[in-house]
Amino acid sequence: MSLSMDTIVTIVAAGITLMLFSWLYKENRFFRIAEHAYMGAAAAYTTLISVDTAWVYLYDYVSKGQWWWWLTVPIGLLYIFFFTRKYFYLYRYPTAIVLGTSIGTIVARYIKTQFLEQIRSTISESTTTAVLLPKPLDGVLVAIGVLTALFYFYFTAEFKGPLNTVAKIGRYTLVAGFGGSFGLTIMSRISLFIGRIRFLYFTYPAPYVCVIAAIALVVAVALDYMKKSK
Fold it and tell me: Are both 84 and 105 inside the same structural domain?
């Protein structure tokens, strides 16, 4: 019976998934093989996508007569000198250019999204209305949380009496925010885990691969136990 390409891909995907899950038992050779294969495939895919994207942008600019964009090619080729000890300093030039532009772009983006947008959301109509006329509960919580969290980082005066109470509310607000962020991260990881379990259970012929892997795991555990008992 011939196997279709989709069946082969499913078998390989199920096998790699189970090899990665084998780390839950202990560090083993199968996990390292799957880990290295995944990292190699991700690096190769990222390299191809980066080269294709760079060529698309380069062709777009050069076709418009902006010939100076060809200068990016020799600058990018300087990365090759990373593998040489004598001319390693040449590798630092494209690295400095990329890091400098990336940091500048990221800082500008974060100022807009994480700073200005937060201020705009804090002083929105619902929040300001809640401070003056406490009707929407979410606006009241946002106003109290922002003000007390900011006050928590006010180190000029010692927190005593009512000031200590306000600082405690700010600390609780920060803890709630960090806890919600951590919970969201855990939920996303659990969602990925459930997705792989559904793939192994519902996608043919992945369940048969799971049975073979379970038998192999039992044999491996038995051999490991026998080796330790000697």
Answer: yes
